[in-house]
Design a protein that fits this description.
Order of helices and strands: EHEEEEEEHH
Distance between the termini: 52 Å
Oligomer: single chain
Largest sheet: 7 strands, antiparallel
Radius of gyration: 17 Å
Shape: globular
Number of helices: 3
Helix content: 10-25%
């Protein structure tokens, strides 16, 4: 199996982390050569369907997904979303878990992204490589989603060193 897991801690509230991680079109900002189209009207719920189209020209493929479990975080209850990949090129599932920080509202929010990714007819011998690649690509995407758009960050999204080089 090509299952991989990404764990992150963020200072965001659980509600804000959830909102960012389940903003399906925003995922395209973190996955190269990808755009996402939501096929069902919002808000997201069980039955929501969307397609991630990755690549360009004839080398592109669709990754249709459906939300099969939807439980936003609530006080004392972690958020959980399960997606099932329903395509020909990519199959499997993904789960997003968002857990509140400390009970008093302080502390960090914990995020877990777990996925079982299958690529077409790729032999199982490649599962470890698929999992490593998935962990790298989706780890980048999760980090980017939790950081938010560049314009929301100090320095316009530049890291501190780059921001210092740009300032007069």
């Amino acid at each position: 199996m090509s299952v991989f897991r990404i764990d992150r801690t963020t200072p965001l509230t659980a509600d804000e982390a959830w909102r960012r991680l389940t903003d399906w079109p925003a995922h395209a900002r973190g996955v190269p050569l990808t755009r996402i189209s939501v096929l069902t009207p919002g808000p997201t719920r069980v039955g929501t369907r969307f397609v991630a189209r990755t690549g360009f020209g004839p080398a592109a493929f669709d990754d249709p997904m459906e939300v099969v479990h939807w439980q936003p975080p609530a006080p004392g209850v972690p958020g959980r979303c399960r997606l099932v990949k329903r395509g020909r090129a990519v199959t499997g599932w993904a789960e997003i878990h968002v857990r509140h920080g400390a009970v008093d509202g302080g502390g960090a929010t914990r995020v877990c992204w777990e996925e079982d990714l299958r690529v077409g007819r790729l032999p199982r011998v490649f599962d470890p490589l698929t999992a490593r690649t998935g962990r790298a690509v989706f780890g980048h995407a999760v980090g980017r989603l939790l950081r938010g758009p560049a314009e929301d960050r100090p320095g316009g999204g530049l890291d501190e060193r780059s921001a210092r080089r740009r300032s007069p």
